[in-house]
UniProtKB/TrEMBL annotation:
The keyword Hydrolase does not apply. One of its GO terms (biological process) is trehalose biosynthetic process. CDD domains: GT20_TPS. GO terms for molecular function: alpha,alpha-trehalose-phosphate synthase (UDP-forming) activity; trehalose-phosphatase activity. Its EC number is 2.4.1.15. InterPro entries: Glyco_trans_20. Keywords: Glycosyltransferase, Transferase. It catalyses: D-glucose 6-phosphate + UDP-alpha-D-glucose = alpha,alpha-trehalose 6-phosphate + UDP + H(+). The lineage of its organism: Eukaryota, Fungi, Dikarya, Ascomycota, Pezizomycotina. This is alpha,alpha-trehalose-phosphate synthase (UDP-forming). It comes from the Eukaryota. It is an enzyme of class 2 (transferase). GO terms for cellular component: alpha,alpha-trehalose-phosphate synthase complex (UDP-forming); cytosol.
Length: 477
């Protein structure tokens, strides 16, 4: 990463709404930080092993007092993170109202209505990020912006940097699907958002389908020129648009599986479930993850396979997410009701076929759960990539467990028959997929596993990040 404009060094700046640590204030007024969950943090954290960068983002709460800001900034600085402080009302409008009630649904093919004041706040927050990042950047730096919370940032940054006489390369990566052009155009501010992204030098997507959808929108809404396979011409500039396969850090799971406490936890769980087939599900409690469809199909599966009574258990971890958003609160209620009904219908004095955990679990526990499960069931209605499925594979070197993955998760387009796929809203298909998974022959499991394992070992998060940065560096050299 050499650049003569900055003493031969091109620093990397990452910008995302969510930081690797989320800060909360405790009842006694002190600040506590915890590791954030979600695919974005997982993939970027995997890059930290090989690449050094500063990570700008929102700390998750309002901090007004300058001394408190100092304290929060200091604790984040230990993780190379820099806080972009926001007023709580503004952050709420930006994160909950616009990003998660308008952009998130439309990116996942749900219809929405524009909330004008939330749009104003979205613009304002993107401006505040631009101010903070542009001031901190040096001439020649690489700036990599992430996700739908900051779609306007590339445009605002480019303007500010130019005003300050700094020439930085700007990359943008989207961690969600990008929908088909006819869907995207339903959003009244559809043009402004893609114009914002097009101020980048390079734009990354998880799959070719999302990239193509984005290019189609650029062409039909902005009359941008598309030069297949990966170039867009817009306002006299060339922009690279491509898919970059995001992954995990498999070694982190291998190392965790060697820890004595994880080994003994696995033994304990194996004892608890010794006569049962274990199916694991790990999802943020989000409607795109298809949890209601999963429970409906599991109920149908239990009805159909009475011979498996007390012989199968679904352990579903539902990580709390976006709890201030009404749709997520309603989902929580709906899922709890469904869980209660399934439990009431199928549980016996010997146990329940469903274990529902609505909380975040420690990484060691998560790893142990992945390791003991005979199958992993992920039923997303839409999902940018889905990293949980790769994590499950990383923990299954001994068991060769079966991956049962919705055809609507980005990851399914890379699995080439190594897993069972299904349409999540087809209850019968999904119930049959569960049955096939827990009755699959060992030789088929092994050959599927080997195929998936090769994929996750090759396409790590480090490789994803390094490839993106290398191409961004080249295209702006
Ligand atoms: P999304 O980005 O939509 O949440 P992904 O499947 O891509 O979906 O990523 C979810 C990530 O969150 C995984 O890497 C998973 O391990 C991680 N995760 C799940 N539970 C926790 C937890 N309790 N703490 C931290 N990370 C978690
Ligand atoms: O996968 C999309 C995404 O927005 C990621 O950026 C993030 O890791 C995850 O969902 C969790 O979202 P949030 O930041 O709202 O907790």
């Amino acid at each position: 990463m050499a650049d003569p404009r900055n003493g031969g060094k091109r620093n990397l700046i990452i910008v995302s709404n969510r930081l690797p640590l989320s800060v909360k204030q405790t009842d006694d007024g002190t600040y506590q930080s915890s590791i954030s969950s979600g695919g974005l943090v997982t993939s970027l954290s995997g890059l930290t092993k090989s690449t050094t960068f500063k990570w700008f983002g929102w700390p998750g709460l309002q901090v007004d007092d300058p001394q408190d800001r100092e304290k929060v900034s200091k604790s984040l600085a230990a993780h190379n993170a820099v806080a972009v402080f926001l007023d709580q009302k503004l952050a709420n409008q930006h994160y909950n109202c616009f990003s998660n009630q308008i952009l998130w649904p439309i990116l996942h093919y749900q219809t929405v209505t524009l909330n004008e004041s939330a749009w104003e706040s979205y613009k304002k927050v993107n401006e505040l990020f631009a101010e903070s990042v542009a001031d901190a950047a040096s001439d020649g730096d690489l700036i990599w912006v992430h996700d739908y919370h900051l779609m306007l940032l590339p445009g605002l940054l480019r303007k500010r940097l130019e005003e300050q006489g700094k020439f930085c390369a700007i990359g943008f990566s989207l961690h969600t699907p990008f929908p088909a052009k006819d869907f995207w155009r339903a959003l009244p501010v559809r043009k402004e958002l893609i114009e914002g992204i097009l101020a980048s030098d390079q734009v990354g997507f998880h799959t070719d389908e999302y990239k193509q959808n984005f290019m189609d929108s650029c062409h039909s809404l902005l009359e941008a020129t598309i030069e297949p396979p990966d170039k867009i011409r817009w306002k006299g500039r060339w922009i690279i648009a491509d898919s970059f396969i995001v992954g995990i850090d498999p070694q982190k799971f291998e190392d965790t599986l060697q820890k004595p406490e994880v080994i003994s936890r696995i033994k304990e769980l194996e004892e608890v479930y010794k006569d049962k087939k274990v199916i694991i599900g790990v999802d943020r409690l989000d409607y795109i993850k298809g949890l209601t469809l999963k429970l409906k199909a599991y109920d149908a599966f239990l009805d159909e396979h009475k011979e498996l009574k007390n012989k199968v258990v679904l352990i579903q971890v539902a990580v709390p997410s976006r709890e201030d958003v009404k749709e997520y609160q309603d989902l929580e209620t709906e899922i709890s009701t469904m869980v209660g009904k399934i439990d009431g219908k199928h549980a016996t004095p010997d146990g329940s076929p469903l274990v529902y955990m609505h909380r975040s679990v420690p990484f060691t526990e998560l790893t142990a759960l992945y390791a003991v499960a005979d199958a992993c069931l992920l039923t997303s209605m839409r999902d940018g990539m889905n990293l949980v499925c790769f994590e499950y594979v990383a923990c299954q070197a001994k068991k060769h467990g079966v991956l049962v993955l919705s055809e609507f998760a980005g990851a399914s387009s890379f699995m080439n028959g190594g897993c069972i796929t299904f349409h999540p809203a087809n209850t019968k298909e999904l119930s049959d997929a569960i049955y096939r998974a827990i009755t699959m022959r060992p030789d088929e499991r092994e050959s599927n596993y080997n195929q998936l394992r090769r994929f996750i070992d090759k396409n790590t998060s480090a490789r994803w990040g390094e490839t993106f940065i290398e191409r961004l560096t080249k295209c702006t050299a």
